[in-house]
Design a protein that fits this description.
single chain, mainly beta, six-stranded antiparallel β-sheet, 1 helix, 16 strands, about 0% helix, disordered N terminus
Length: about 260
């Protein structure tokens, strides 16, 4: 598992439910109440939607004041024949505010399967993704499948404008791969699965305009010979004159 830098200094969970219901104590792990007038039931299948909000406070740089990061959305409880089929949260908006007057709202978000169990911050993470010394914001959209930790939204801090800006290139990479920011090299590394027996690793560097360029790719293809012996074919690509070129192609025997 990749280590994620989630630095949350303080958090506050505030939830509002429909009329006639108070928020129970012990939010994490305690089901929300089911409002009788907020159900879409057919036979024994029932969906209950309860608004909630989550706020975390954190500095993104030691020289800056704390920002507040507030998530708003719905707690979704789905039952079938009385059994819990789904108990999770869907995020609809992220609001970032600061004592310096910063106020940014990112709404019309779509998240699915964002469960409380994913982390104690509902998929909200702070990490320096472009190696400028400032923490950036990411938010889990939905858990991943083969080769991917999950798809994420990204908003990177721009010290020149003093605002967070969406980065769709990082977001699109998470659709099929797991990303890691590697400060030692200054690269963003992408880990992914090509097919059932093939895996890849790509390294990206930031250009002056903030875009990412793939500069190296390593593909590992597991193969079986006629004697059921295992080997791994390794193909190495590097960026040369604007194109990814094969610079090495070899086999590793597996004992």
């Amino acid at each position: 598992m990749l280590k994620r830098s989630i630095l949350i200094a303080a958090l506050c969970v505030v939830a509002a439910v429909f009329v006639g219901h108070d928020r129970p104590q012990g939010f994490f792990g305690v089901p929300d109440p089911i409002p009788p007038d907020n159900s879409a039931a057919q036979n024994d299948f029932e969906e209950v939607f309860t608004p909630f909000a989550f706020t975390a406070a954190q500095r993104i740089h030691e020289s800056m004041p704390e920002f507040e990061f507030t998530l708003e959305g719905m707690h979704v409880l789905v039952t079938d024949n009385g059994e819990v089929w789904w108990d999770g949260h869907e995020i609809e908006a992220l609001t970032i505010t600061g004592t310096d007057g910063l106020h940014q709202v990112f709404d019309s978000l779509y998240t699915s399967n964002t469960r409380a169990e994913e982390s104690n911050s509902y998929g909200l993470e702070l990490e320096d993704w472009n190696f400028d010394g400032f923490l950036d914001v990411s938010l889990l959209k939905y858990p991943g499948g083969a080769g991917s930790r999950g798809a994420y939204y990204f908003w990177l801090w721009n010290p020149e404008t003093g605002r967070f800006e969406a980065n769709t290139q990082l977001e699109e990479l998470t659709y099929y791969s797991t990303l890691e920011a590697v400060p030692a090299s200054g690269y963003v590394v992408s880990y992914y699965q090509l097919d059932h027996d093939s895996y890849g690793t790509s390294s990206y560097r930031y250009e002056d305009d903030g875009s990412l360029t793939e500069i190296k790719r390593v593909e590992e293809i597991w193969e079986t010979d006629e004697n059921d012996g295992l080997s791994v074919r390794v193909i190495v690509y590097e960026l040369m004159f604007g194109e990814m070129v094969v610079i090495d192609d070899y086999y590793l025997a597996i004992e």
